[in-house]
Amino acid sequence: MARQSIDRAGVRSRLKPRREPYWGPLVERGLYLGFRKLELGGTWIARQRDEDGRQRYKSLGQVDLMPYEEALKGARGWAKSLAEGIDPGDVESVEEACRAYVAELRLEKRDPAATDAEGRFNRTVYGKPFGKIKLLHLRTAKIKEWRSKLAIADASKNRTLSALKAALNTAVSNRRIDSGRAIEWQQVKPLPVSGRRDVYLDAKQRRRLIDHLPDELQALMIGLYLTAVRPGALAEAKVEDLDQKHSTLFIRAFDKGHGQRTISLSAEAAALFRKAAKGKLPLAPLIAYPDGSHWHKKRWDAPVRAAVKAAKLPAKTVAYSLRHSAITDLLNAGVDPLTVCKQAGTSMVMLEKHYGHLLHKHATKSMAALTL
Fold first, then answer.
1. Topology of domain 94-186, per CATH?
2. Of 295, 232, 233, the residue nearest 262 (C-alpha)
3. What are the φ/ψ torsions at residue 29 (nearest 5 degrees)?
4. Predicted confidence pLDDT, tens digits, the chain (372 residues)
5. Phi, psi of 62 (to 5 degrees)
6. In angstroms, rounded to a whole number, what is the distance separating the alpha carbons of residues 77 and 36?
7. What is the number of helices (H) and of strands (E) in the chain?
8. Is residue 238 classed as helix, strand or coil in its secondary structure?
9. Is 9-83 a CATH 3.30.160.390 domain?
10. Which of 83, 88, 12, 90 minimizes the C-alpha distance to 44?
11. Is 135 strand, coil or helix?
């Protein structure tokens, strides 16, 4: 087989387009770098023959975007990975790594985490230019650029970044990519987040907020305070999730990966949800948007912001502030922290992190029972 001086642009330009690559000289034992000539431009192709005689091929990138020396470096890196037992198989891109991660979570019966990660990837990775990036070409700057363009709150950006890192780390663990590549995403640190858990609304402020909301949104926002669940969890509740006989509400597994659970309802909350469910089919939204579908953040965000301004509440007030206020009031009322965790769908670690001062106050009162 004739070898070509494919390192020279002049030589490449004179070659005829064909499917079979033009191969350059031997790079190292069993490894060759080739040039596949297309009608417009071409691509670099690496070929490696192992000791058993099996040949493997790897597309390295477009010639117009990758100089010969970089392609040569890529070919050597690929061969080194194969020698170390690293084989990407069908997991070469960011999207493929994310899909493989979700599939692995489901195999491990971690359905809540899988559902949460899949939802984030559906919104930010799948079908997006970022998802098409090859793992070998993924760089810190690309990840930061992707994150900066996400039209979500900084806290959500951090959670989505965590899901992405978990997927990429899984690709490393499964030897789909060299561990040295992990530095590219390890250098992307979470964004500083503050604010939403600092806004506490007292009873008068909550009433002003509700009064300034559109009628169709009031039940959802009242329900947030009366249950202390996350806005998205309550918005996705269906009529069949309400047990009117026992005054409980089933919360689905998508709730931030905290798993399915059944929460208790106060008499006020039970009455609110009974009214919302009246005359609806079991699979209908418990608290429906005017067109009969589920509420979601993009639907309630603007009305809540308008109500916050009209009611002259703290500027950082959001729907989540009602949940924060509920958790605060439960702890101040002396409710057992473990009960609060189950109700709110959070952990003791997070409760300690954001409500530590209230937990210490609760512990102090409890310790007063110990006397000689």
1. DNA polymerase; domain 1 (1.10.150)
2. 233
3. -50, 120
4. 567 788 888 888 888 999 888 988 888 888 889 899 988 889 989 888 877 777 888 888 888 888 888 888 888 887 877 776 655 555 689 999 999 999 998 888 887 788 888 989 999 999 999 999 988 889 999 999 999 999 887 888 998 999 999 999 998 888 778 778 889 999 999 988 754 457 899 999 999 999 999 999 999 999 999 999 999 889 999 999 999 999 999 997 555 545 678 999 999 999 999 999 999 999 999 999 999 999 988 899 999 999 999 999 999 899 999 999 999 999 988 888 899 998 998 888 888 877 887 777 766 766 666 666
5. -75, 140
6. 20
7. 15, 7
8. strand
9. yes
10. 12
11. helix
Residues 187/292, Cβ–Cβ less than 8 Å: no
Residue 112 token pair: 């809540």
Cα distances (Å, whole numbers) of residue 232 to 110, 253, 304: 20, 12, 15
Q: Which residue has the tokens 């930061």?
A: 144
Phi–psi pair at 310, nearest 5 degrees: -65, -35
Give me the amino acid identity at 284.
A
Upper half-sphere CA count for residue 132 (Cβ side, 13 Å): 4
Q: Where are the domains of the chain?
A: 9-83, 94-186, 197-367
Q: How far is the C-alpha of 51 from the C-alpha of 60, rounded, in Å?
A: 23
CATH domain 197-367 topology: hpI Integrase; Chain A (1.10.443)
Tokens of 34: 């080739």
